[in-house]
Structures are given as C-alpha cells and as structure tokens.
Specification:
The complex is a heterodimer of chains A (about 350) and B (about 375). In chain A, about 30% of the residues lie in helices and about 20% in strands. Chain A has about 350 residues and is an alpha/beta fold. The radius of gyration of chain A is 21 Å and the shape is globular. The chains are: A alpha/beta (about 350), B alpha/beta (about 375).
Chain lengths: ~350, ~375
C-alpha cells in the first residue's frame, strides 16, 4: 500500500438539530471514523443516503469541524493551522460536486469559473497571462477546447460541465480530490467518458481520489480500496476486490446483492432483500447499528457495539469489518443468501 | 423469434370486449407513435414512429438516456402530455381500443381501471395537502363510486398489499411523513388500485437507495404476477433492464433503434448504440482499464440529422447512413451474405406489425449484420 497521505483517526461529528420524535437533539453524523488515503490512490466511499458520506467529505474539506478525532495530512493536523499555512493547506484538497448543473455559476464564463480559485490563491499564477494560459491548459487536460473558456456553462452538456468542474478542482494542483458522486447525474455513455478522464488524470498527475458513490459497479472499477459506511460508521473496509468478493459484514453482502447486475446469462441470482429502511440517524439502534435490518442479529448485537476486527480470507488477504457474526469468507455470498432465505 | 411453435399456439390480441388477460397476451400495442413539442424555436419531434407491444405478466423495458423520448412516450400512452405537446401520429391500442383516437374525456375512463402509471419522484407526484388515505381512495370514489368510509377501507387494504406497516394508523398521514421508499410504495398502490391491465413505471427507483430499490422492484414483480399486468418499465439503467425485463426497446433521439428479448439483445446487440451502451458499463474490466465510451453526445431535438439518428457517434457510419434513415427491421441472426432475404423479411415484418406470438428482434441499422461481438 502506498504511504498514507491523509489519515483520519476516530473522527466524530455531532450536529444539534430541532427535537426529533424521541426528543433527541443530537445527530451523530460521524461516529469514530478511521481511514487512510495513500498518494495516488483511490478510496471508494460507499453507503446509502444519510450514512454520513457527505459529512465526512465536508469535514475533510474543513467545512465542518470535528468534535473528536484527528486528521493528519502528511503529519500535520489541518485544523491546527492558521493564516498562510491554512491557506496553503486548503489548496491541497479540492472537491468535485455531484450536480454539474447546480455547481457552476451560470453568470460566469467557463474560464472565470476555472480561474476563480486563483483569486484567493494569488501567488499560484500571478499574471493575467499566466492565468489565461493555465485555463487553456486545464480545459485541454479535461478534453475541452481552450477557446471554450469564453462560453458560459449553459452552452455545455452535462458531461462537459462536469469536465469544467474537474478542471476547477485541478486549478490549484491539489493532492487529494474529493469526488462526491461525480458521475451519477450523467448518462451512461457520458459517464464512461468522465471515468476515463479521471483515470487518465490520476495516472498523469498522481493525485489521490476519495470517490463517493452509491454505484457499486463504478466503485469497483475506480477504487483501489473501499470503505462501506452505515449510519455514521465505517462497517467494513479493505481492498476493493477483497471486500467485493468476500464481504464479511452482512450489510456489505446485502448491498452487493441488492445492486442490479448486468448479467444476461440467465443464471438465477440469489438475492438478499433487506427488510425496512435506514433507521433515522437521530435515533440509531443500540449496540450494532445494523441489527434492526440484519438477519444474523442476536441478543448481543443489541447490547454491545462490535469493534472493528481484522478478518483473514482463505487466500490470506485481510480486511476490517465490524460484526459479531461475520460472514464466512469461503462461502461468501452463498451462505449469506441461504441464511437470509431461511428467515 | 426463439420458437416458431410458440407463435402458432399463443392467442393473439383479442377484439374489444375481451376481459381476462392470459399470460403473454398482447395487452398494449403501440405503432407509429409520434409526439411533437411546440417550442419557441419551432416544432420538434420528440418521439418519432415508436412501436412496441406489452404483454400480460411480462415487463417491457424502454431503455434510453435522458432526452431520448422514453418519458414522453410514457406520457403519451397515459394521455398526460404537457399542453405544448401533441400526439402527431400513431395508434395506442390497449386491449382492443385505440386510445389515440379517443377524446381526453373518454380517456379518463381508462385511467385507473385499464392503465396505471408510477412516477419517478414520489414526493412531487403526491399531493402534500391531502392524506395518503384520501389520495389512495380517490380511484375508488371516482371509478367505483364508493363513499369516503369505504374508500378509506380500500386504501388501508392497498397499503397492506404494498407492504406499508401499520396501515390503519398510517392512512391518515401526509406524504411528507413517509420515507422515500414508502412514498414510492404509496404511488405504486395508487397505480394498481383498480387492478389495471397495464402498469407504466417511469424510473420508479431512480431516486431511491439501492437496498430500497431492491424492495420496490420485488414489490413490482409480485404485483405483476398477481394481476397478470403488463408492465412498461422506463429506465436508463442497463442492469435493471437485465434483471427485471423480459423484452427491451432501446430508444435514441426519439426513435426505437433496437428491440427484442432482453437476453438476446444484451448478449448479441445488433445496433451500434446498444453495443456502445453495453460497453460503457464497467464490468469484467481490470481496474484502470479504459472504458469504451461512446464519443460525443446525443443530437439536440431541433437538430436531428435526416439520415440515421446515430450517425454522428457511430463507428460504422457510411454514406448511406447520412442519406437514408434505416427502418426498424428484423435482425435476429447474421445474414450478411443474403441481402435479398432481408428485404423479404422487412416487408413481411411491416405487414405483420409484430402481432406474432413472440417479440421479434429488430434493429434500425444499415449494417446491423456487421456488428461483431467482443
């Protein structure tokens, strides 16, 4: 594994909200999140809506301050920085947003949108000439024409707009780009173009990606490692193939099983269809947070929250999962479906 | 196309008045459907000569990217087009009645008992100021002339049928008090309230999480089996089509470019667009491998070329594609060496109009025999 560029330890974030049905006013959006991102690596972040993916992304962008836990970026804690050092740090983590129609200012030209970060980070390209040249370069890097700088966002298609969003994120030469559902608003044929572009840029620039997505097929294609989130916790994490092929947490197995597969061989696939929906993060279940939807849940799951444990697959590969009764790696999904079916 | 014996034994579309739907009966037959939209830049054709058929107890998927006309087709079928849209041509024969020839008032009789529709966004499709019980009971009050109390009892039954817990108390709740998945269940309940023959589901799970999507798809399957409904599933998701549909019609720029049984179309696409879509899905690839994406983007509606609609993005494009729009013609097996047979096939297919027992494989491409499979 590449040396970690960014590492997070026990990150927690609680929001104070208006009273919920149970009278709870504290929403624990992140609950002890730990993960690392290596240089030039892609970390996939998977989970259903409301599981805390976006809060994690916002915290890494320093748009939220964590209550507990540490963030270490090449050994320094960005939350302890001030003034010029903080400004320099902010340059290094950038973000691409989900909706290419909402994330570009319709009253600015594409060139101005891409150049806007330099209004804050003035030292990067000090002269107007240097900025204009760099805008042209960036547009070409993302597969548009340098002359497109004068056009306004409305003149571009969804895929082209997302390319502009990527060019804006690249403008400050960041080390980490957080991609929040970067292709889910795009049509399939355009989605493939953007995924190819992201892949080429990573090879060329060595930038790390944190790739947030609910599309498991896409995550499997882009991510080196993957972290599965459920109600503010990472319940399983490891190398992508390892987690996808031998899911150990029942939720991961259910998620894999629920996502439709493009397989027309006619083979009947056993499916785990979870009961119910994600519980409200305002009133998470006691003990293991997944127990209300889990087919393996027993008394202990309601009482004791499982600790992350290292599980070893038959081929010797290991990954982390939080479960009292992890699935058998050798049997993998088959045993899971059998158990779910028996209920 | 897969079995000639089936064609002979299966019953054909019955005349008007035939009531019970047998499995695999053709419930809906659409042909030559065209929809015009009046815009300030002139009239554009959003749906152009679309034809397909939906069968009882089966799911037909309308597959395409945004702007390809799939939702417009659904709205035309249901008779709920925006005022700027006109049904220009075509017939929509639902169980022997041509809906396209009816007045809007006459069509209302079909909305509910014969045809139900499930929309994509459950929050905007439900009325926020009425309880779900009122909205669910509406169909019974209008079509069955039930009073409010009876309608509420029916609504509770419906909610139980679609798997909403504690329906007796939830019936008095408002839409915003339900989660996304539950709202979608309510929409489905409304659509199937009067056991329609045809259910149109327009991207029913796009706004939902994947575990909830699986629940909703399971519910739709169960309801389809129970009522022997014909389901038209409109989606952009190839994997959903592969898992849920029996046959598929692939749409591009307002035209059906390929149709047939899902397993055959996906295993052996006969139109370069279908092939391109299938290759855009990242499966069976090493991580970091280039995806074979389709270059460019679909044409604007006011700028659709006169020849083949796919010409600007097609790797096989030739002069004939720019000059002449290929018709949808049978394209089951490769017969590149027998062009004459193609012409015969094409003529007989237009005469038949696809009323034969099983869905025919068709593709609208001049070179559909030359598409090789990777």
């Amino acid at each position: 594994m590449p040396e970690p560029l960014l590492s997070i330890e026990g990150l927690s974030k609680t929001f104070h909200v208006a009273k919920s049905a149970s009278g709870n006013t504290r929403l624990r959006a992140l609950d002890g999140i730990s993960l690392t991102v290596g240089r030039g690596e892609t970390l996939g972040l998977v989970g259903e809506s409301g599981c805390g993916k976006s809060t994690l992304a916002r915290t890494l962008m320093m748009l939220e301050t964590p209550d507990e836990g540490t963030v270490s970026f090449e050994g320094t804690n960005p939350f302890g920085l001030k003034g010029k050092e903080l400004l320099a740090w902010r340059r290094r983590v950038q973000m691409v947003f989900q909706d290419p129609f909402a994330s570009l200012n319709a009253r600015m030209s594409a060139g101005d949108i891409i150049a806007e970060p330099w209004a804050t980070h003035r030292s990067l390209y000090p002269t107007a000439k240097a900025r204009a040249d760099r805008v042209g370069e960036l547009l070409q890097m993302v597969g548009l024409r340098a002359s497109d700088a004068r056009k306004s966002p409305q003149e571009f298609s969804g895929g082209q707009r997302q390319r502009i969003g990527i060019a804006r994120a690249l403008a400050l030469n960041p080390d980490v780009i957080i991609l929040d559902e970067p292709v889910s608003a795009l049509d399939l044929s355009v989605q493939a173009q953007v995924l190819n572009l992201l892949n080429e840029l990573q090879k060329e620039l060595g930038v790390s990606y944190i790739f947030i997505s609910h599309d498991l097929t896409v995550v499997r294609h882009v991510a080196d490692r993957v972290a599965v989130m459920y109600l503010g916790r990472i319940i399983e994490t490891g190398e992508t193939e390892e987690v996808f092929d031998h899911p150990r947490h029942p939720y991961t197995a259910a998620l894999m099983s629920a996502s439709p597969k493009l397989d027309v061989s006619g083979a009947q696939r056993e499916r785990i269809v979870l009961k119910g929906e994600l519980p409200s993060p305002l009133d998470p279940p006691s003990g293991c947070r997944f127990r209300t939807r889990c087919w393996k849940a027993q008394d202990i799951c309601a009482e004791v929250a499982p600790e992350p444990q290292v599980l070893t697959a038959p081929d010797g590969r290991r990954h982390l999962a939080e479960c009292h009764f992890p699935l058998d790696a050798a049997k993998g999904l088959t045993s899971a479906t059998a158990a779910a079916g028996a209920l | 196309m897969n079995s000639a014996a089936d064609q002979a034994t299966l019953p054909r579309t019955g005349p008007a008045g035939v009531t019970a739907s047998q499995p695999h009966d053709v419930v809906l037959q659409v042909s030559g459907l065209a929809v015009d939209i009046r815009t300030h830049r002139g009239t554009v054709r959003a749906v152009n000569g679309v034809g397909f058929e939906a069968r009882a107890g089966e799911t037909l998927a309308l597959l395409g990217e945004s702007g390809c006309g799939k939702s417009m087709t659904a709205k035309a079928l249901a008779g709920i087009m925006d005022p700027v849209c006109d049904l220009a041509e075509g017939t929509i024969v639902l169980n022997g009645t041509d809906l396209a020839a009816l007045t809007p008032k006459e069509r209302l009789k079909f909305a509910g008992p014969e045809l139900g529709i499930v929309f994509q966004d459950a929050l905007t499709a439900l009325n926020p100021v009425y309880t779900v019980g009122t909205q669910l009971g509406e169909a019974f009050r209008i079509h069955r002339k039930l009073n409010a109390k009876q309608a509420k009892a029916e609504a509770i039954d419906l909610m139980r049928r679609v798997g909403i817990p504690e329906p007796e108390s939830r019936v008095n709740s408002y839409p915003h008090q339900f989660s996304g998945g539950m709202r979608q269940r309510i929409l489905i309940a409304m659509a199937v309230a009067l056991n329609p023959r045809l259910l149109i589901a327009d991207e029913p799970t796009t706004a939902l999480d994947v575990t909830v999507q699986a629940q909703i798809m399971q519910l739709l399957r169960t309801l389809r089996e129970e009522g022997q409904m014909a389901v038209i599933l409109i989606t952009h998701d190839l994997a959903v089509v592969a898992e849920e549909a029996d046959s598929v019609a692939v749409m591009y720029a307002g035209n059906v470019v390929e149709s047939g049984p899902v397993a055959e179309v996906f295993a052996d696409p006969r139109h370069p667009y279908t092939k391109g879509l299938l290759e855009s899905v990242p499966v069976n690839l090493e991580r970091g491998d280039q995806l074979r994406s389709i270059p460019g983007s679909p044409p604007e509606l006011h700028d659709i070329p006169s020849g083949c609609v796919y010409q600007s993005r097609c790797p096989l494009v030739q002069d004939i594609c720019r000059a002449q729009r290929p018709a949808l013609r049978p394209a089951g097996r490769r017969r590149a060496d027998n062009a004459a047979a193609d012409v015969d096939q094409a003529t007989s297919a237009t005469n038949d109009g696809g009323t034969a027992g099983r869905p025919v494989r068709t593709a609208a491409c001049h070179f559909s025999e030359e598409i090789t499979n990777a």
